Amino acid sequence: MIVLKSAREIALVRAGGRILAEAMAMLRDLVKPGVSTQEIDREVEALIARRGARPAFKGYRGFPATVCTSINEEVVHGIPSPSRRLREGDIIGLDLGVIVDGYYADAAFTLAVGEVPPEVRCLIEVTRESLDLGIAQARPGNRLGDISHAIQRHVEGHGFSVVRAFVGHGIGRELHEDPQIPNFGEPGRGPLLKPGMVLAIEPMVTMGRPEVRVLEDRWTAVTQDGSLAAHFEHTVALTGAGPVILTVPDGGPDGPGGPAEREQDA
Ligand code: MG
Q1: Which of 17, 114, 197, 202 could form a disulfide with 238 if both were Cys (CB 3.0 to 4.6 A apart)?
Q2: C-alpha of residue 231 to centroid of ligand 1, in Å
Q3: How far is the CA of 88 from the centre of ligand 1 (A)?
Q4: Interval 193-231: pLDDT, tens
Q5: Kind plus residue range of the DSSP H or E element containing 99
Q6: CA of 118 to the centre of ligand 1 (A)
Q7: CATH number of the domain encompassing residue 28
Q8: How far is the CA of 168 from the centre of ligand 1 (A)?
């Protein structure tokens, strides 16, 4: 059952989303060669605590950390470790969630550590673009498959693969609510999208084959063929006026301090 959210509930998800946006901005500065994934985790956990919120993933089904740190062929759910240090040329997926007054927000992005080859830069860019295209379809009157299809079409059009084993999800009082949001599918199919839906849309994309396997730590999902993977996610509210991204700084992605502005600075 898809639970529709009131304006008050969406405001609580938004409050969490603002904290995640702040954490992601901090991570852009923190992620560099030599830093350990545990240091990344501790910094984000401290920021969340300073904002009076709680990490969403720590303790979720036994996950031991605040941030999922997934390096190179790791797709999602990598576990931070003091011995895992970033190296020049790595890419890292950072997935983080927060709870504010009982409501969850969830976001992820992938960063290059120093310089990476153009084709790796392309993987990251195409994954981010596919999220943007999926979000653009997240409007009342469309169907869920319109989101899925927009993502798949863009990813496969660039010769990359969409991971099947993990999908996006509704979000609110639970981290994972209905509906499941595959990153592949047919346009015009699936549940009708309605105002009040809050969706975590999260394409996971590989440079090779789509198959993944889970390591013996029972969390870390890696590509079966060892190819690199990227992951981007936003939590989005559907309104009569269209999609509203909740996991961006005030002013939205194009506003002061948003990713668009930072990209221009870079
Ligand atoms: Mg998620």
Answers
A1: 197
A2: 10
A3: 27
A4: 999 999 999 999 999 999 999 999 999 999 999 999 999
A5: strand 91-100
A6: 27
A7: 3.90.230.10
A8: 6
- Does residue 247 sit within a domain? yes
Residue span of the structural domain in which 208 resides: 7-253
pLDDT on residue 250: 86
The rounded Å distance from CA 45 to ligand 1 centre is 18
Distance 138 CA to ligand 1 centre (A): 16
- Find the 107 Cα to ligand 1 centroid distance in Å: 7
Q: What is the pLDDT of residues 132-164, one digit of tens each?
A: 999 999 999 999 999 999 999 999 999 999 999
CA of 167 to the centre of ligand 1 (A): 8
pLDDT digits (tens, 9 = 90+) for 96-132: 999 999 999 999 999 999 999 999 999 999 999 999 9
CA of 234 to the centre of ligand 1 (A): 8
Tell how far the Cα of 72 is from the centroid of ligand 1, in angstroms: 19
Of 84, 93, 76, 68, the closest CA to residue 35 belongs to 84
Give distance in angstroms: CA of 202 to centre of ligand 1: 6
What whole-number distance in Å separates Cα of residue 259 and Cα of residue 174? 27
Is residue 57 a contact partner of residue 96, using CB atoms and an 8 Å limit? yes
Is residue 37, in this structure, part of any structural domain at all?
yes
246 occurs within a structural domain: yes
Domain count across the chain: 1
Has residue 52 been placed in a domain? yes
Which DSSP string corresponds to 46-76?
HHHHHTT-EESSTTGGG---SEEEEETTEEE
